Amino acid sequence: MIDKILMRSKFRGTLLGALIGDCCGAPFEGQIMDSGTKLVLKNNLDRLEGPFFKAPYKKYTDDTAMTKCVANTILDSKGFSQTLLAKNFVVEYFKDPRRGYGAAVVDVFAKLRNTKIADPTGPAAAQFGGTGSYGNGAAMRISPVALFCANRNKQELVQLVRDSSLVTHSNVLGVNGAILQALAIHQCLQLNPKDMFDRKQYISQLKADIAALESANDPDLDANSNAYMNQLHAMEQLLEDKVESNDENVLNTLGHSVEALYSVPTAIFCFLKCLSGTINDSPQLSFRSTLEYAISLGGDTDTIASMASSICGAYFGDAIISKNLIKHCEDADNMIILADRLFDL
């Protein structure tokens, strides 16, 4: 059983992890992460965690902007609806468009505004010849849904994730990626960090949950019918040292792109690798290592670090996150407020 004090800390850790990963990962997005760049990253994080100094905030990107929209939609007095979520996305984007939004989602927002949100899921469903987006945009913002469903059954969680995702991502790979990320957070919320972490059981549960989702796909018609199960199996092989888990193998196996299939399992891997004792066995160092390792892989650094750090925060709670690091991230106080409101709800 998780007591209320720890669970509130877990809620805060989830949203703060999402914010910190986003803020700290954004400057390194798309960079070649050679030894020199990784040293810059390490020194940068050391400085942010060290004695506090006044400086401009590390600004968040579209990842956090849309996460806040999801949280505020859930917290609305009338409850969640796709129309309200679409409205919140559109208002937030046109109020502050310079947050690194991708061209595809900007096109969705423009069509939603032009049609006065007559159909909140229509523009997304029409994208890419009707196949929809398989990017990680739905997964990167899903943490408030996992928190809202902390004491609800998985069927409710999956349905709310799906409803949230379809406003911008209708491809099954984009939706299932968001569901997998939410399930990873949801499972961590139920675990006590003072107990021994059973990595095999954690992965086994994720595989069972994703198998139930993918079983609905027709393997004769859908080439991606077992896509996430295959990625989770590959992730497990890397963690069990059945395949050498150097950075090159991790990237070749799991990926680090904007596609949900090649970023959500990577984020989960980052959390598990840094928790397993291969890097350290301290809660404080586990969060820092998860953050740093996720960014060090390069590619879509802000989103992968945001997802990985959110999972880590859901497991340990916010007490293990450097207070000075939190202070350096834009809007951290508001993320704590949103986490507390979701907890109270």
The strand count comes to 0
Secondary structure: helix percent: 55-70%
How does the overall form come out from the CA principal axes?
globular
Structural class: mainly alpha
* Beta content: under 5%
Q: Can you give a write-up of this model?
A:
The chain has 345 residues and is mainly α. It has one domain (4-74, 135-215, 226-344): ADP-ribosylglycohydrolase fold (Orthogonal Bundle). The protein is 63% helix and 0% strand. It contains 18 helices and no strands. It is globular. The model has no long low-confidence stretch (mean pLDDT 94).
What would the keywords be for this entry?
single chain; 345 residues; mainly alpha; ADP-ribosylglycohydrolase fold; 18 helices; 0% strand
Summarize the structure.
The protein is an all-alpha fold and 345 residues long.
Produce the secondary structure layout.
Blueprint (H helix, E strand, L loop, with lengths): L3 H22 L9 H15 L12 H14 L6 H14 L7 H12 L7 H5 L10 H4 L2 H6 L5 H12 L6 H18 L9 H16 L12 H13 L7 H7 L10 H12 L7 H14 L4 H16 L6 H5 L4 H13 L1
Helix pairs in contact: 1-16, 1-18, 2-15, 3-4, 3-18, 4-5, 9-10, 10-11, 10-16, 11-12, 12-14, 14-15, 14-16, 15-16
